[in-house]
Design goal:
D-Maltodextrin-Binding Protein, domain 2, about 350 residues
């Protein structure tokens, strides 16, 4: 009798559990059906095409035959301008875009469509907008790096104050990009972690170290570090350094306290021509499977269940203190931090 009751009880629980999945399953089926009716989507991307864009598209099209993905690759400024021009003409061509800072001018123009991504339900709160306006797709820790052939182990900086040592004068470089991963983000981190007055005092001293402004991106600056042109560089992405070190390059990224962590994100274009296909692609990109493709390509994934290809890159598994510099915070303070950069360092 007890056994029979237990079976009925378990059966009821199973039916209830399955019933709780019905709305989600129905929504997934409806999304897939809509995507197949549309048959395509257009992705405006700032990411490296060969490294991640093509592998992600290839797997998506294998998984969802009948839904083709086209892409347009450009820096975030060009991407934002393209979407804004299309929006003003009421002729949107793109369906989604990436790049954290890309979001803000487009949101201000009313060109972003909210969508709460089911695949990102377990993401940390810092990495998704509660209203679904954006969701992080990659984490980008920015750190200094040293050429281990050119710098003695005893001389490797352990704190930001160590950057003020006379040995580094004229021997440091960073990218001139005006982003969270560039000098403005570094300046913001210093001011937020040290406080305004002590932080400004530190930055004024650092400016006397004659940091070279390289007119390019983080990867180019790191390559110059590896080649020995600059023994110490600031504001490179730690995963770039880790990948190069794994390939035998004489480079090591540094965990100064706190390390800056910014991130890229995905958002949907308002009134886009293929909204269901775009949502399906976002769900795939932010799922464990999609994030695994990011990780395999060397990026730092956001999904808590997907580890980095090289351990220790995220604050949680690398055990380092971090300043989470969200696109929203950077957007609010960008003008202030960029002005300090231009006044002190250019």
């Amino acid at each position: 009798m007890v056994l029979a009751l237990t079976r009925r009880s378990l059966g009821g629980i199973a039916v209830a559990a399955l019933g709780s999945r019905f709305p989600a399953l129905a929504a997934e089926d409806e999304l897939l059906a809509g995507a197949r009716r549309e048959g395509q989507l257009v992705w405006y991307t700032t990411l490296v095409v060969g490294q991640i864009v093509r592998p992600l598209i290839e797997r998506f099209e294998q998984k969802y035959p009948g839904v083709k993905v086209s892409f347009v690759a450009a820096p975030w400024q060009e991407t934002a301008l393209r979407i804004a021009n299309e929006g003003r003409a009421s002729q949107p061509r793109g369906d989604l875009f990436d790049g954290g800072i890309t979001f803000y001018p487009l949101h201000a123009a009313g060109l972003v469509e909210p969508y709460v991504v089911r695949a990102a339900a377990g993401y940390p709160a810092d990495f998704k907008d509660p209203g679904g306006l954006w969701t992080a797709n990659i984490i980008q820790p920015s750190s200094p790096a040293v050429n281990t052939d050119a710098v003695r182990r005893a001389d490797i900086p352990k704190t930001y104050e160590d950057l003020l040592h006379p040995r580094w004068k004229g021997r440091m470089a960073w990218p001139d990009t005006p982003s969270a991963g560039g000098p403005p983000g570094f300046i913001g981190n210093i001011l937020m972690s040290m406080g305004q007055e002590p932080g400004m005092a530190f930055l004024e001293k650092l400016a006397k170290q004659q940091i070279a402004n390289v007119p390019s991106n983080q990867r180019v600056v790191l390559d110059q570090n590896i080649s020995g042109q600059y023994p110490l560089v600031l504001q490179i992405y730690n995963y770039h350094a880790a990948i190069s070190a794994a390939q035998g390059a004489p480079v090591e990224w540094l965990k100064l306290d706190p390390t800056i962590v910014s991130f890229g994100s995905l958002s949907l274009v308002k009134n886009s021509p293929h909204p269901n296909a775009a949502r399906l692609f976002v769900e795939f990109s932010l799922s464990e499977e999609g994030q695994g493709i990011y990780a395999n390509a060397g990026y730092v994934p956001v999904h808590p269940n997907v580890p980095s290809k090289i351990p220790g890159l995220r604050p949680d598994d690398g055990k380092y203190a971090a300043t989470i510099l969200s696109p929203g915070l950077f957007n609010e303070r960008q003008a202030e931090w960029t002005a300090i950069y231009r006044r002190l360092f250019t």
